[in-house]
Write the structure tokens for this entry.
Amino acid sequence: MSQMPGLVLPAFFSYYSSPVKMMPTSDGGLMAWRLSIDTGGWEAATHLVDEILFAVGGEISVLTADEFVQRTEHDRGHYLQGEGPLFALYETVRGIEERLGRERRYPTPREQALIRGIRRKTFVMFEEELQRAGDPGADPTIATQV
């Protein structure tokens, strides 16, 4: 599949509340990856490219790199469980969000910045682990584009 005119890669989307990224390939084409809520890794999703690009609106929206990182880490933190430093950070964010829910209030600017910063950090940590495990869709550098 070759690149479409006007499409700047990498490109980030929400597809029915699931993060999707479109990345350039070495031959000038593109590859799409959709977050797996079962593993936190990336599933090939090139079959969705036309639907995403030609049906943006409703349940499909364009995301910035930062929105993509935040949405990905929200989902990973919500759906995945485990041990270690990465999951301790997910638990920290979950604790803040639960407190906000109990107190029935929006996060302060400081809390927002803390959550966003933790999610950028967990994104890089998770993506680096995926790279070590051989996930071809892993790319920790996306968090530096924010």
